[in-house]
Amino acid sequence: MTTRAKLTVYSALASALATLCLLPLVTSGGWYLHACLLIALSAAAGAGLRRLPLPRWLVPAGQLLVLVYALMLGFAGSALTAGVLPGPRALDAVGTLLDGGMQDIQEYAIPAPATPGLRLILVGSVALVAVVVDAVAVTFRKAALAGLPLLALYSVGTGLADHDGRAWLWFLFAAFGYLLLLLAEGQDRLSRWGRVFHGGSRGESGGRLSHNGHRIGFLALATALVLPLFLGQWEFHLFGDRAGNGIGSGGNGSGVTTLDPLVTLAAKLSRPSGEEMLTYTMSGDNAGSTYLRTGALDEFNGTEWKLSPKDVSGNPRALPAPEGLAPSVTADPVATAFTVTDRMDSAWLPMPYPATEADPPGSWKYEGSTRTLIGDGKQTTRGLRYEVTSLDVRPTAAQLRTAGQVPEAIAKRYLTLPGDFPQAVATIATDVTRGKTTGYDKAVALQTWFTRTGGFTYSTDVGNGTGNDAILTFLENKKGFCVHYASTMAAMARALGIPARVALGFTPGQGLGGKSFKVTDREYHAWPELYFQGTGWLRFEPTPTRGSAPDYSDPVAAPSTAPTQQPTTAAPSTGAVPSASASSSCDGRQRQLGDCADQDKAALKAQGQRSWWLSWQALATVAGGLALIALLTAPMLWRAWVRRRRLGAAGRRRPGADPRTELTDQQVLAAWEELVDSAWDLGIPPDDSRTPRSAARRIAEAGELDADATAAAGRVALATERVLYARSGQSASALAPDVRTARDGLRASARRTGRARALLLPPSSARLWWRTTERVDDARDAVRGRLSRAGAALTGPFRRAWARLRGGKGGQGGSAGSPE
Amino acid sequence: MPGSVRVTSTYDQDGQGGRGGDRQPENFQRGGLHELGAVVDRVRASVESVIEGKPEAVRIALTVMLAEGHLLLEDVPGVGKTMLAKALARSVDCTVRRIQFTPDLLPSDVTGTNIFDQHQRDFEFRPGAIFAQIVVGDEINRASPKTQSALLESMEERQVTIDGTSYELPSPFMVIATQNPVEMEGTYPLPEAQRDRFMARISIGYPSPEAEFAMLDVHGGANPLDDLAPVAHAADILKLVELVRTVHIADPVRRYAVDLVGATRTSPELRLGASPRATLHLVRAARAAAALDGRDYVTPDDIQSLAVPVLAHRLMPTAETQLSRRTSEQIVLDLVARLPLPRPQAPAVRRG
């Protein structure tokens, strides 16, 4: 087998091995054989085409044609004209299959059944990758680059499938295939130089080769290990946010998020990147504790909270009056200006509740029952600027306690619980609210129970879910995040006869000074909204350590009569700019009660760790930068230092000494080295086989020196020659001026780039590298020698004993053993 | 047959030039070199009046003479090999003999033989053509290897042994042989042992058009050799030889010579490298070259410039090398260009 044929076979093998990682995507593995067949076919086609005198780019084109025909034959065989000839009918058939496959991809979860469409897509794409690998590795002989298509194949497979811990197996296969390919290419490349001898190589050259190989390997390994440390902090930006499209981006077809915004929310919360989503400026006193609401889930069917079929209409600029809000309740209008970043791509408009006026640019539809604005078609919030007027509703406890009867329509819609709603939950709700008579008191009791007395903890490590089972599990383990608290409290409220729904949106952002706030994806939140006749929908905050409890939900602090009392949610020191960021939020009251000390500590600790980590990374980055700068400027500095030292030695006179002071041999040689290195810096590399005389001649010729400089270089060479070869005792006068003259001559005839290089990155600084590596090698040899001596000293007695033993045996056997 | 030996001329009278070298050897270093320069310049001028436009060949010929070596001139016929040899011989005031090597030349014709003297009733030694201070061997490769071998002892040991009796050869003793390249008709290639005894081989090469034109003018008239008068005495040459022996050669240069000769032995292109005698010759020639250059120390430049003339004729390229038409000269030049100079050793330098 020629090496080229080997290369073909190995590239096909690499493709087939990398394809293995797609196996878990589909329930049955029959398609894999088909794919292998096609890979083999395209490889054979490539091998055949390469034998013909064709331009190289025609080979992959031919392979593609063969591939398309084979796909038609395999998937639309019946549609071929006369059973063999492809026609428009066959193309149509394949196209239909493809469409079906695309739909299947959207419909089925992984692992999907092997429908013909999926098979076509899998087999076709694998064969396509195989053609690309074959073209890159064999036709264009760049086997290393063939790793990229293989990597694409592998990452699709591992990215989509849930490998339950067998990912390493697929990696082994894929990597093995790639390494085989590289090996084959190495052989192929070597064989093009001629026959490969497997005899021993000359020790020295082999040693040097392996030496360089070690160095390259070490450098690559070190880079691979060190670089990720610095890349770590950009990880999320590099690979994008997996749950990047915001809550419920219903308009643009990303189906999953529309269907279950809670799932998206959970993903956001468990993996926050801290990216800025939007900023806003809000008037009013409660700006720091006003939640931004994007939507609400109003239907609970026992498996999840979801949106009931929407009742959308065009966007009236002035929204209808809020449901159930009586004029007697204090409700000050608040104006808010939003600026949404490009990172937030949601179909639902963030607004404070209840908004009375909103007119965002673009086409928006108003959903009346949940009071949300939803993008029409492909309209999203991306990059949007808009203003919203909303009401800051501040009911008193008394008003809430005396709330009237809930209207029939609301009760029907927001009190519905599924038939299989667990009785245990209702019982717990009743227990918690025992002794409370009004709906308001019951709601407050529930909130208090969740946040303080119930022993709940915040954790994003809990599985997502809002159904009956999820609620039961949550109440049992008392661990969860906002989605669990919101949905459970809403369900319990319904059980207690309070109309409730789950609202989604953001907690107040971090203050930017003044009334401006910044909202990142850490602020994603869900909370229950409860309905009280006379005040309408009010938010509650059952999630510990997140958000802030509204004033009216605390019967002690809630103003019973005076509605204008200032809220106390703001942190005492900052007043207007409360620190309400999700990571350290703890509302003022909790703070006062000392309940969130632990949470605070935990949060602080987490922050401390992160800041420590950040500072460590920053330090490392700065240190790395400094090291890089040092590394880059080292040649220049070293060269300057060396020049000063050499010329200083060769030219400095002792004060008051004879101007024609004799130079020592070292000084003469230093001057000579300086001349040689100066020439090297300006593009005349040194030649070890040249004598001083001929080196000076060469410098003069190659550097186009004028007569003065040539004579100067000649004098330096002559002095050097005398030092090296003549009888000792000859004197030399100061050489530094001569070296400088020659150097100036060299610089004058060099080009500007050459001069710049001589200054910034002098080639002669390679000597620094040589010297360093030489020292390292010496040190290593010394250590090795010492080790081997130590080893010999340790094992010596045993070996001697062994030799004696063997000698004794030999003697007994009467054989003529060696005298040793 | 003694008839084949043509002893052309002998200069044993005191030449008119060639003196001025009578100073004492105490002030060797400066004055000696100075004097050497004067003598050599005279000889060089004398030779170059005959061989025009070939200063390099003349310089090497003089170098070999001062280094007590033998010179092999190899070139195609008609470029002035014999002219150079004779010019050099005539410029120095000493005994000169000329041997025309022919296929029927016998060893005894070269070395001499014992002849029975009827009157004395005893064998009497009749010295051959080799008994002279400068022996010009013309077309040495036309003689049979047997006859060529007759030169072996005389060239290396400077003596001739006939019937068990050794006869010393005069001093200075120098063989200047000419030969045609071996590919030419009717030639016997010199045995390796014989080639090794020549210190240097040079070829003269065709003259430049200008030199050739000038030559027509000069040679058109009388034979230029006729006008040639000796400009140096044999004793001067001996003194200069002594002087050359005192030229300093530093350890790095010696090591370089050893390295260079050693490199010919390990070169994959060569079947046979140069011998230790080659190293000796190289260093001796380098000393002479340094002295010719007016220096009292040898530099690697001397070694490098002499590497081709001294080493090339001793090397035997492999068949592959010959097939790829690479000559020994090219190989030696390659070695010179590749071989790094020995780095100055610290102890040798540390004296300031």
TrEMBL record, chain A:
Ranges of compositional bias, category Low complexity: 555-574
Record key words, sorted: Membrane, Transmembrane, Transmembrane helix
Limits of the Transglutaminase-like domain: 474-544
Pfam (any one): Transglut_core
Chain segments annotated as transmembrane: 7-25, 31-52, 64-85, 117-136, 143-161, 167-184, 216-234, 613-638
Region ranges (Disordered): 543-592
Protein name from the UniProt record: Transglutaminase
Natural source organism: Kitasatospora indigofera
